[in-house]
Each structure stands twice: as C-alpha cells, then as structure tokens.
Amino acid sequence: MCGVHRKGNSMSDITDQLVISKENGVGLIQLDNQAKRNAMTFDMWQGIPKVLNDFEADDAVRVVVVSGRGGKAFCAGADISQFENNRSSEDAVEIYNNTVKAASDQLANCSKPTIAKIEGFCIGGGVGLALCCDLRIANDVSTYAVPAAKLGLGYRADGLTRLVNVVGPSFAKEIFYTARQFNPTEALEMGLINRIVPRTMLNTYVDDYAKIIGHNAPLTIYAAKVVIDELIKPDGGDEVRMAQVVDDCFNSADYQEGRKAFMEKRKPQFQGK
Q: What local confidence, expressed as pLDDT, does residue 4 receive?
C-alpha cells in the first residue's frame, strides 16, 4: 500500500507542510518547510497527533519514519518567525507549549516503533523531535545543536529528560553549555544517533531497516518498548504493566505462529494478535 493520504479522510485538515504517506507497512511523516530548513510551524505541531492517530489505527502500519524533505535538513527547530503571534502573551505561550508537548508526547509514546531519518541540519527542537523517536539514523553530513544558550531560552524538564535518558547528564550538559554544532561522529559517540550512513545510501538503509523491524512480531516489539521505557522512569516503572505486555506476547497467536514457523523452517507471518 502506498500513496499520500490527506483529502477525504481524518487527516484532511492537516497542513501541507506535513507530507503523509503509507508504503509497504511504513507510515511516513515528511516535514516540508524547506525554505526554513523544515522548521516546525504551529500547524505542523498540531498535525502530528492526527497523523499518529491514523497510523495507530491502521494495523498495516508496522513502523513510523519521520524525516525532512529536500535533503538539506531534518528539522531546524521551531519556526521563530511565528513567535511574535504565537508566543506574544502568557496564554499564547501556554497554548503553544501545550501543543508542542502533546505532539512530542504522542510521538514518544507511539505504540509502533519509530525512526527519525536525519539528513543535514537537526537543530534545537529538531533534536527534541528526533529524541521522541525510538531510533535515529543519520547521514554522514548531518549536524546537531541545541543553541538555547545563544538565544536566552529555557528548556522544559520533559524535553531535557529525553535528552538525558539518551546521552546521559554529562553529554547533555555539554550540548547545552556549549550550544555548538556537533558532527555525526560526535553524535554517534554520545549516543544521540544510532547509525551513520553515507548520504547516498540513507534512504535505502532506512527502508531496509524499517522492513526488518516490520517483519518481526509487533507484540514483542511493543512489549520491549513498554518495558524499556518503564525501566528508565525514576520510580522504576509500572511492574504490573510490564508483566502484562509480556504475558500478552505468550498468549498471542503470533507466539504460536513463531514456534510453528521455527519448527517448519520458514519465515513467520506475524499479525500482531
């Protein structure tokens, strides 16, 4: 299944700056504000939860990939040209922040595995958006920075928590204290990204990676995601929930299919049930 999905369905009112499609079991979100290095507008933040709701409801979507169009930038953060209108009062700031938080939280909590495909600039809120994904795969000319200290901005605890969970407190401090740009090798060393791929191979590599993930048992992947995310919580996580998602794997038809396929020496056909 492939094609762009917009008019005539639940996503008909989404901004054209989000290009949405479904291809071979992968839900694709492409940021398309190329004149501003795919900086996030308010409408883009508003649209992300609607897209994810559609992907969540579609059993055919096994993996979600977020990327930037144009090949020069994943995302350069927030579109600051909108700040005069969207952050001009305390009420406006609250609405804006809540919208960004809702989109970020829904991406981070998506039940399906998520991949950020990073080309070029990944700056400020772009780093935050990438951190909401489970995996980050980047090309060899990507660049990373959180320039808050050069702008006098403060970062909310929820955004910093994701960064600290991924790179640790020391690297998180370095990123914020210096506000400098980091190359992909430095990002890999910090754990900010999972893989560096030559720029000409990135699309194929991510397509293949998504295919590998998509062929595996959805309930097992979901259980791993839930347990890992619970384990890094300060309180050690919800033990009941962790036990339940593991039990769901063993009680599933997919578990029976996996065992049967192994005995029959064939590839399993998982249904997520």
A: 47
